[in-house]
Design goal:
Elements: E1 3-12, H1 18-28, E2 32-37, E3 43-49, H2 51-63, E4 69-78, E5 89-91
Parallel strand pairs: 2-5
Antiparallel strand pairs: 1-3, 1-4, 2-3
């Protein structure tokens, strides 16, 4: 069983290594998806995989890397069928 969620993270989350840290966390959990900076200063990520692993990734986003100051994490469920299993987790260019 797979689940997927798109998440927006706000606070001091750009310029603090948040994208690379998120990629490392997601890869360690075996998740598929991506992470990118948004022009409004937030970070957006898409996590897809086993429900427990996705929940762990979301919990990690509430903490973030040491230099980050997370204000809010807003998840939105998406169709897991749209993300190919085994596609890996990437750091995308800024949007």
């Amino acid at each position: 069983m797979r689940t997927a969620v798109r998440v927006r993270i706000t606070g001091k989350v750009q310029g603090v290594w948040f994208r690379a840290w998120t990629r490392e966390q997601a890869q360690a959990l075996g998740l598929d998806g991506w992470v990118r900076n948004l022009s409004d200063g937030s970070v957006e990520a898409l996590f897809a995989g086993p429900p427990a692993a996705v929940e762990r990734a979301l919990a990690a986003c509430h903490r973030g890397p040491p230099a980050a100051r997370v204000a809010q994490v807003t998840p939105t469920p998406v169709a897991a069928d749209d993300i190919a299993a085994g596609s890996g987790f990437a750091q995308r260019p800024d949007a």
